[in-house]
């Protein structure tokens, strides 16, 4: 396979992957979109952050993050707290309910991945994981459409 054909195949397969990920998010938890799940995961990983930091990290429009944050607040999955170092800044944190939902969805997602990859040899899994990390680590000057 030539390089240009390989790139085309990668683009097509990653588009299919993204569509499946969005579709499966609703089955894993009906109230939690893929974006919401991702934002909750980041808040847990960072032990809280500002909404503007979420927008910058995921290259999302501030209005998109604002809508997601508002929905997560209404669902009592996140809360705002004043930054102890700068009381002008509000930091988003998971609530106890947010931690429970995130743990549940994460467990369901991991089970789905394990099932799908069950017959892959360990060497293939390790190589695939490395390729994904390498791909996602790239910080080029283009938009993050891929």
Q: How would you sum up this structure, described in words?
A:
This protein is mainly α and about 150 residues long. The chain has 6 helices and 2 strands, in the order ααααββαα. The chain has helices spanning about 5-30, 35-45, 50-60, 60-75, 95-115, 120-135; strands at about 80-85, 85-95. Strands 1-2 form a two-stranded antiparallel ribbon. The longest helix is centred in the first third of the chain and has 26 residues, at about 5-30. The chain is globular. The mean pLDDT is about 90.
Radius of gyration (Å): 18 Å
Q: Strands across the major sheet, in which order?
A: 1-2
Strand content: 5-15%
Largest sheet: 2 strands, antiparallel
**Shape call:** globular
Give the terminus-to-terminus CA distance.
21 Å
Please provide a brief summary of the model.
Helices cover 66% and strands 10% of the residues. By secondary structure, it is mostly helical.
Characteristics of this structure?
146 residues, single chain, two-stranded antiparallel ribbon, 2 strands, mainly alpha, 6 helices, globular
Write the layout of secondary structure elements.
Blueprint: H1 3-28, H2 34-46, H3 51-58, H4 62-74, E1 78-83, E2 86-94, H5 96-116, H6 122-137
Helix pairs in contact: 2-5, 3-4
């Amino acid at each position: 396979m030539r390089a240009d054909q390989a790139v085309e195949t990668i683009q097509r397969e990653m588009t299919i992957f993204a569509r499946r990920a969005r579709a499966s998010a609703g089955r894993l938890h009906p109230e939690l979109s893929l974006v919401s799940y991702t934002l909750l995961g980041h808040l847990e990983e960072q032990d809280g952050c500002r909404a503007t930091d979420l927008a910058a990290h995921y290259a999302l429009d501030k209005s998109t993050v604002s809508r997601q944050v508002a929905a997560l607040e209404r669902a009592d999955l996140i809360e705002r707290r004043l930054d102890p170092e700068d009381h002008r800044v509000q930091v988003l944190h998971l609530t106890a309910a947010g931690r429970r939902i995130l743990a549940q969805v994460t467990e369901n997602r991991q089970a789905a991945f394990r099932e799908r990859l069950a017959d892959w040899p360990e060497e293939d899994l390790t190589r695939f994981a490395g390729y994904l990390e390498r791909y996602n680590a790239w910080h080029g000057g283009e938009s993050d459409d891929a």
